[in-house]
Amino acid sequence: MLYSLGILGGSVMTAWVFRRNLINKFLFTFPDNPSVSISASPGENEVCVLTSKQVEGPFYFPSPERSNIVEDRVGKSLQLKMQVIDYPNCAPIQNAVVEIWQADAEGNYSGYPEQISQDVWKTFMLFGKHGEKKDNGEYTVKPLTDSQYLRGIQRTDENGWVTFDTIIPCWYVGRVPHIHFKVFLNDKEHINAQFYFEKDFCDTLFTTEPPYTKMGKCPIDFKNDGVLASVNGEQSGLLLSIQKDDNSNCMSICRVGVRPV
Questions:
Q1: How distant, in Å, are the alpha carbons of 4, 83, 91, 156, 197 from that of 252?
Q2: Cα separation of 208 and 228, whole Å?
Q3: CA separation for the pair 130, 138 (Å, rounded)
Q4: Which DSSP state fits 175?
Q5: pLDDT: is 75 or 246 the higher one?
Q6: Cα-trace Rg, the chain
Q7: Residue ranges per domain, the chain?
Q8: Where are the beta strands (DSSP E) in 97-237?
Q9: What is the pLDDT of residues 169-206, one digit of tens each?
């Protein structure tokens, strides 16, 4: 284990506040220089700004190359269209590698035991047994299963676009719903961040449509999210705008600005 759990007393181990602080400290710790001064602005209007960096999170491992990442997961369909542009020139970047990964409609991540993210202490114990500290100070947890749902990589076309077919993710203990993403240029990671959703949209979905109703309304908001609390709930322009088609399927368009050099 990376650190000893044996020194923790029984009463301390059962204290929720202590559990939450440990999880936030070890799983959601920001790396050095976590953000840049200019944030992303998802949307359909022309923008040319530099996307803010955020933590990778503990449940990352390399994804398969594909556009449809749903597999057997059930949930509200979401078509996520992302354009990668050059900051500050605003030119689309062709052949950039875009990777996304996320939880399912019950807060589960592929590669890990089902429902592990719903129990903060079990998550911490899993982390203590299988976690590793990276060079940037973040921690990651080795995958324990072969599942790869809701993970995918694509290369941008000549106009800098990729499209992923996925579902709306649900919340889990300590985190509001979010989608992780990375952008690589010439095999080098240039941005790692997360997209978020309007709370009203999520509250309605999670209280009206199964399987989200199993989890219900997210009990936390941006200001006490495990990652965003450290920046006073600021999403740094990473809030997705959701549109719906005639069949109530969801779509969102966003742009990610990266500095190629």
A1: 44, 11, 21, 17, 10
A2: 26
A3: 14
A4: B
A5: 75
A6: 18
A7: 38-115+142-258
A8: 97-102, 131-133, 139-141, 151-155, 161-167, 178-185, 188-196
A9: 999 988 999 999 999 999 899 999 999 999 999 999 99
The single residue listed with the structure tokens 């203990």 is: 173
In whole angstroms, give the CA distance from residue 155 to residue 8.
47
Which CATH class, in words, describes the domain spanning 38-115+142-258?
Answer: mainly beta
The residues, any chain, with a CB within 8 Å of residue 202's CB and separated by 6 or more, are: 168, 171, 176, 177, 217, 218
Backbone angles phi, psi at 194, to 5 degrees: -140, 140
Contact 96, 154 (CB under 8 A): no
Q: First vs last Cα of the chain: how many Å apart?
A: 38
Report whether 35 contacts 53 (CB < 8 A): yes
Q: Indicate the SS3 state at residue 224.
A: helix
Q: In terms of DSSP H, where are the helices of the chain?
A: 10-13, 16-27, 120-130, 199-208
